[in-house]
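Blinded run. Sample ID left blank on purpose so nobody reads anything into the name before looking at the predicted structure. Input follows.
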Amino acid sequence: MAELGRRVHLSQPAVTERVRKLESAGVVTGYRATVDLNKLGYGIRALVRVGRADYARVVKLIQQTPEVVNAHNVTGEDSWILEIAVIDVSHLDAVVTKFCILTETSTSIILNAAREHQIMLPPRREDVKPPIEKVNNA
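Blinded prediction complete.
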């Protein structure tokens, strides 16, 4: 808390109180270490788009597949978007094949990440601007 206090120019007790309030309100839901998957031996990260399949079967397979880093149930043509981490191409093939048995998949290898773990502040309506100005026909 002392380091956080220095960064935001508040005393340690003030920071501790604010963090505890955020935890109590459910805004801060936990803490985690950010791990470099490359240094753990996972040389490839990929996004796997999974088509329509039985929800329970996909969830079960996700839970049984430790290479799945993140799993999102989504709208659109795909039902799921999975982020996986694997050692090499043969490992990628083995993991993707598990999901291919359920339904069609499409896989993209991540070359680099332009943004990860973005710090998010509470949204403010006045910061939301329409992408284009609407024209009134008056």
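Unblinding after everyone has recorded impressions. The CA atoms of residues 46 and 110 lie 5 Å apart.
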